[in-house]
Amino acid sequence: MASIFSKIVAGEIPSYKVAENDKFFAFLDINPLAKGHTLVIPKREVDYYFDLEDEEIAEMNVFAKRIAEKLKSVTGCKKVAVVVMGLEVPHAHIHLIPMNSEKDVNFANEKLKLTPEEFKEIADKIRL
User: Looking at residue 79, what DSSP letter applies?
Assistant: First the structure.
């Protein structure tokens, strides 16, 4: 059975896409810690980040870097955190989280509640 992320890539589940190429897909997290919180995934379904091939990890990070640069520019944050974690979805992914302090990257924090219009506006600003 395909993961929810594979269904997003396939267009079976809607998302707020910010970037895509032949190997990777990036979209806004629907339970964000900050405006612009983006998930970067390989299109190839692999559960564990470190099970990706070395070349895939390198390419995924270069893909994520372009998004992080745009996120920093759009949000005005000090840095963009890169977090690899998550057991809830069996599909490797990177979190890109605009941050001004380390507290901004605490996954125990209350998630933002954004409207579909807010998500669309943010995605439009970040989109590569």
Answer: E
